[in-house]
Design a protein that fits this description.
single chain; 465 residues; alpha+beta; FAD/NAD(P)-binding domain; Alpha-Beta Plaits; Glutaredoxin; 3 domains; 12 helices; 31% helix; globular
């Protein structure tokens, strides 16, 4: 059995692993991506929603146009429970909508980018063991051993990496016997996507823009094990229970049954091993947060790994836990609250809850927070009013945009008078007198007035050499 060498080993070639590997390869880091599945992309993925913050993340990598070109509906508003509406069109972003794009379309774009950047992807390679010491980590696989400086497990809910390092995954099943299917509809819903909870049942219907509609449904009164047979009649029945109609569904492309857990590891880092995406946290499908949260994990971790490999202090990697674990916890609470409300059996709670949700969405601060959470635009790190906040994609004096300047995994100094070869210096088209350093993940890392010395110190600690 051969022993390959890499600076970073990534396990799991889903969206999270592919974005991470592509980022590292673009930064000049030698990366090997291991995947137990075959190379063929599956169209049976559960994820379909690409939120605004994720599209901004793609834009900062020059990928947004490719993802958008894959097609898919752009939802300027999302109706919740038939009464409350989130107006995503109000987002201050180049992408004020939810894009309906199947996970395999996103994976195709990310895989092409990772390979072009120089990442090595090895399919049909199953992880069977992980051993680390103070200097390296070795992964034993069905195809041999691979040794690297760091390992990132992005290999899903049943993560072999997480199990190999003995990291607990506490939590519980939120819903059992969820039905997932792609079907054709003769009478599509008025709202797209449509979400409705009624009579102890929950339904979700969204257009895949390829002739099929993704349907997720759950019936409190018909709880079955995951391996129990499921057919179109059962799906039609629970859909009618929620919406009063099954929308004329027919010709299923596939139907499956699964259960939804709420789980999160206590630590995203264990020595030289990191966990991201579903390997670190999983939650209900409400709000379409899963794939998006994992992609933001990858965007946060990738530049930090590259920086430490260039000589930045190792403690920078601890900020991955500090920043992303609270976000994962917040997503669990948010999606869990949505699904618990939608699946209530109490008609009184339904009526009062729907009325309260509708009223809440008319209160600007409440609506703003909800839209910011579900889109990812409102997520920030820490409590400072500037540092740790998402940097808006402002126009630059030369006519370009900030997110174009970020491409290539670069830091951007929003002060053209400060020069440092580790960052791009740019001038805002509308300067406000405050200098800023924007991190490669699009968040503000430093802000102040004493720019030259402070910027150099910041980059020493966060960019390496």
């Amino acid at each position: 059995m051969s022993n390959q060498q890499a600076a970073v080993i990534v396990v799991g070639a889903g969206p999270t692993g592919l974005l991470l590997a592509g980022d590292l390869a673009e930064a000049g880091v030698e990366v090997v991506l291991l995947e137990k599945r075959a190379a063929e992309l599956s169209n049976l993925s559960r994820a379909f929603a690409v939120h605004a913050r994720t599209l901004e993340t793609f834009d900062a990598r020059g990928l947004a146009d490719q993802v958008l070109a894959q097609g898919g509906a752009r939802m300027g508003s999302v109706s919740l429970f038939g009464r409350a509406t989130l107006h995503l069109s109000e987002l201050e972003s180049r992408f004020p909508y939810l894009l309906v794009a199947p996970q395999y379309h996103v994976e195709a774009v990310l895989r092409e980018r990772a390979i072009e950047a120089g990442a090595e992807i090895r399919y049909d390679t199953e992880v069977t063991g992980v051993v680390q010491d103070g200097a390296s980590v070795t992964v034993t696989t069905s195809q041999g051993e691979v040794t690297g400086a760091y390992l990132v497990g992005t290999d899903g809910v049943h993560s072999a990496v997480r199990q190999a390092i003995g990291m607990p995954y506490p939590g519980e099943a939120v819903l059992r016997s969820l039905i997932l299917a792609d079907v054709k509809l003769d009478e599509p819903p008025e709202h797209n996507p449509a979400i409705q909870g009624a009579h102890g049942a929950f339904g979700f219907v969204a257009d895949f823009d390829d002739g099929y509609w993704r349907v997720v449904a759950w019936n409190h009164d018909n709880q079955q094990p995951d391996d129990a047979p499921v057919d179109l009649d059962e799906l039609s029945e629970v859909t009618r229970r929620c919406f009063g109609t099954d929308f004329g569904m027919h010709s299923p492309r596939w139907i499956s049954r699964f259960h939804s857990d709420e789980r999160q590891v206590p630590n995203y880092r264990d020595g030289r091993v990191f966990l991201a995406g579903d390997a670190a946290h999983c939650h209900s499908p409400a709000g379409g947060q899963g794939m998006n949260t994992g992609l933001q994990d990858a965007a946060n971790l990738s530049w930090k790994l590259a920086a430490v490999l260039r000589g930045a202090p190792d403690k920078l990697l601890d900020t991955y836990q500090d920043e992303r674990h609270p976000v994962g916890e917040a997503v669990l609470k948010f999606s869990g609250a949505l699904v618990r409300f939608a699946s209530t059996r109490s008609r009184v709670v339904e009526v009062l809850g729907e009325a309260g949700a509708a009223l809440g969405m008319r209160v600007k601060p409440i609506a703003h927070r909800a839209i910011g959470m579900i889109s990812g635009i409102g997520i920030h790190y820490g409590h400072d009013k500037t540092v740790g906040r998402r940097a808006a994609d402002i126009g630059l004096k030369d006519g370009s945009r900030l997110y174009e300047a970020l491409r290539g995994g670069r830091f951007v100094i929003l002060d053209s008078s400060v020069e440092d070869d580790r960052a791009v210096a740019a001038a805002s088209a509308e300067p406000d007198g405050l200098a800023r350093v924007v991190r490669p993940d699009g968040y503000i890392g430093w802000a102040g007035e004493d720019a030259p010395e402070a910027v150099a110190a910041y980059l020493d600690a966060h960019a390496g050499r």
